[in-house]
Specification:
The chain is α+β, with helices and mostly antiparallel strands and 232 residues long. The chain has helices at residues 14-22, 59-64, 72-81, 88-91, 177-192, 209-220, and strands spanning 43-44, 55-57, 97-106, 116-119, 128-133, 136-141, 147-152, 154-155, 160-168, 199-201, 226-229. The radius of gyration is 19 Å and the shape is globular.
Amino acid sequence: MEDENIETYRIPSKKEVEKLEKAEIGEEVLLDEEEIPHFEPRWLNPNETPFNMKLFDCREYALHMVSSTGDKNIIEKYIQMQSSDGKEYIKENFKEAIRIKCNVDFPFPDTDLPDGILFRSSMMEEKWNIYKYGNQLYFVRSWTGELRYITDYEKKEEGFVIREIAMDKDDFKEENIAFYVDEVHYLLISHIMGYLIPHPLPNDVKDSPEEILKFSFSEFGNRGYFGHFTIH
């Protein structure tokens, strides 16, 4: 049984801060959005999704779950990451890296990603920070500052392409290579380009609602609406 007296900590989102700032002294402030609908976590048939493919519906967690932690060190790190421009990862990255060859094409005309912060978490329900410097992209976990991936970046006449993904050898699992490639693709399309697309699930996650929801929210937070297992 969980200890009900354990303190948990959370950084409010910008919208929540705005609500609190506008509130009168003593006024009760409802931070939840009552108008957000609820969804049953289940596998959806292709004709039930806008993507014409079988997907697991994670919207109940993505739209309603609130992130918090009982670890003050994580809160302090999250706050620290809010002022980081990501340049520290240029020199301080993996002690020993695994490199994955790929060919992930992004055919977006007139798109050339600028140097600097491409995406930074604005609330604890957003789990990633993404940076670009030179011809490399850096994918970092927003809570811990853990560098997860470094990729190359090759500009093309129409869009850009990624041909190599590097990650820490200690985190690498050969059976999840397809997931790593799919995750980089998903993060670029969803977080940087701003499109809603299904997120990948590694094949070592159990096919149960509880496990899929737990992984999806932990990995993708409020942007993980629909999940699908990676196909080798």
